[in-house]
Write a structure and sequence with these properties.
4 domains; six-stranded antiparallel beta sheet; five-stranded mixed β-barrel; alpha+beta; Pdz3 Domain; 16 strands; single chain
Length: 420
């Protein structure tokens, strides 16, 4: 069972990984002038929702992803047709609200039959009220109100499809890009936290409570200089062998603590015929410089990227099966195990997940960002977009396939939990 601190840490990690990805889409979509209707973390029913400016920010039940809903991507506004009776509210010479129902309660609205209307290009509405005909300009941020819901209109130049291919591609690519930036930053922080390994020195990283090492006065952080007068250097195997052969025999350790040499006498206890003192040993480290952290984080980016692509190659060539994959439950379990190893390891793990999320989203699979970029590339080559209905159907099928895979992998994760 995880502690509340570990649970909070895992939740914050998922919120950060998903949030930074969706923020990339959101920020660059806004930068190129696209109306963003919703910024969501998670899928499914809403747990929390607040509207600020043009965008509604929501937190949903299942934290397995997120989305940014841009104007023009889906049918958004109930269509208004000539001959339909509506109400309009005019402010500062332009329509700011269009009412489609319960018109008898709209005391401040002008009621009439629509003769012509355009809410995308020239932004106007012409109403017939009895024998009177009136044409009104429509404000660019006007709202359509129906069934108790207000939806802001989106002129064509504020819709996703109304932007150039390059601007749409930027808004799509920005999500994975922010995951790459976050991964690099987390690797950079890890280098600062873990330091640089000193190959010719060993350090005590953990002392078991009540062990001979604790009773003798050894402490985590001590650098081992010599044992029984023999220099240790970076020879961990030699040190382990000497401890194992000294059960019940006093040993004289020379360690460095806070820059000063210290001699400590410790007697290993014999466990199953082997001497043990209750310490964890690892190569000593020193603080990393800025440049070492910079180059080290770049090296980690390259190494993990290679490993991820090797894994993806094995996946598409069916060298790995469903039982070798981990879903949301499995990742949560592994995250808890990594958190127990220390904060530096958890930061490294979060960086690796962010890098994987960025790469995975760029795969040319329907519903992923890579597939959407592929359609934009096809549009650039052909000079005209793919039929939006066909593209939406392809993405829908891809999303459904991904959800089936997620459910199957999650089912396996839960089975593994019960089987231990």
């Amino acid at each position: 069972m995880y502690t509340p601190e570990v649970i909070l840490l895992i939740l914050l990690m998922f919120f950060l990984l998903i949030g930074i990805h969706e923020w990339g889409h959101f920020y660059f979509a806004k930068r190129v002038g696209i109306l963003v209707r919703e910024f969501a973390i998670g899928f499914g029913p809403r747990l929390f929702s607040v509207k600020k400016g043009e965008t509604r920010y929501t937190l949903r039940l299942f934290p397995i992803g997120g989305f940014v809903r841009m104007a023009g991507e889906d049918p958004e506004i109930i269509p208004i047709h000539p001959g339909q009776t509506i109400g309009v509210s005019v402010r500062d010479g332009a329509v700011d609200k269009l009412y489609l129902d319960v018109l008898d309660t709209r005391k401040d609205a002008t009621i009439g039959e629509v003769e012509s209307i355009d809410l995308e290009r020239d932004l106007h509405v012409t109403l017939l009220a009895g024998e009177q005909r009136a044409t009104y300009p429509v404000a660019r941020d006007a709202h359509v109100i129906a069934r108790g819901k207000e939806t802001q209109i989106a002129p064509l130049d504020r819709q996703f499809g109304g932007k150039s291919v390059s601007r749409r591609a930027l808004a799509i690519f920005a999500g994975p890009m922010m995951n790459f930036v976050l991964a690099w930053l987390l690797f950079f922080v890890f280098m600062f936290m873990s330091g640089i390994v000193v190959p010719d020195k060993l350090q005590l990283t953990q002392i078991v409570a009540g062990s001979p090492a604790e009773r003798a006065g050894l402490a985590a952080g001590d650098v081992v200089i010599a044992v029984d007068g023999i220099a240790v250097g970076g020879q961990s195997a030699m040190l382990v062998e000497r401890i194992a052969a000294s059960g019940g025999k006093e040993m004289m350790w020379t360690v460095e603590r806070d820059g000063e040499p210290l001699v400590i006498r410790v007697t290993p206890e014999t466990v199953d015929g082997v001497g043990k003192i209750g310490v964890q040993i690892s190569p000593a480290t020193r603080p990393a410089t800025f440049m070492e952290s910079l180059t080290g984080s770049a090296r980690l980016m390259w190494d993990f990227t290679r490993q991820i692509f090797i894994g993806l190659k094995q996946l598409v060539s069916f060298q790995v099966g469903l039982n070798d994959m981990a879903g949301f439950v499995g990742i949560v379990q592994m995250s808890g195990e990594v958190a127990s190893l220390g904060m530096d390891r958890f930061v490294l793990w979060a960086g690796m997940l962010s890098l994987y999320l960025g790469i995975f989203n760029l795969l040319p699979f329907p519903a992923l960002d890579g597939s959407r970029l592929m359609f934009l590339g096809l549009e650039a080559v052909r000079g005209r977009p793919v039929d939006p209905n066909r593209e939406s159907l392809i993405h829908f099928i891809g999303f459904a396939m991904l959800m089936v895979l997620v459910l199957a992998v999650t089912y396996n994760d839960i089975l593994r939990l019960f089987r231990g």
